[in-house]
Amino acid sequence: MSVNSIVTPQPHYIPGYTGHVPGYTYKLGDTYGSLTHKILLDPTTTHSEKLVLSDRTVTDFEVTRPTKDVIDIVDGRKQTRDAKYAHPMVPAYAGFVPMLRGKSGMTYTVAAEEGVAEFEKNQMKKRAAEQQLERIVGIQSGKWEPTIEESQLVKT
């Protein structure tokens, strides 16, 4: 007896699948896997032109998360801020993590790091806007002194 004789050929629904299998209720006498294999390949069974089930390898849909830029942003906080948000985030951390709420479909570590990175990006935008506003107020009031780089810029 070979292994191929006991393994259900592809494609087939995995036993325990609770979704719709067209024509399954009217077929008897085989295991779930072999019966769904026959149903999926039967030309008389109505189903979509493209089969939902396909032979995929892990690399077809593998995504590396968190991304390198998220890790860099999270690790960059160590230099200027509290280092409790550092890569890798501790999954059992029960304290507050900014921007964590509403992130589902990923591990806690990935969600926490992406939340911290998103928060840090928002903070950088706010700081840049505040500096721009302070510069504009300084220019309008006459108290602003340009830096060497700004004074060397040619106005067009």
Description:
One of its GO terms (cellular component) is axoneme. Pfam families: CMI2B-like. It is found in: Cytoplasm, Cytoskeleton, Cilium axoneme. The structure is a single chain. With about 160 residues, the protein is an all-alpha fold. The protein folds into two domains: about 1-55, no CATH class; about 70-150, no CATH class. Helix content is about 40%, strand content about 0%. It is built from four helices and no strands. Helix 2 packs across helix 3. The longest helix has about 35 residues, at about 110-140. The protein is elongated, with a radius of gyration of 29 Å. The N and C termini lie far apart (about 85 Å). The model has no long low-confidence stretch (mean pLDDT about 75).
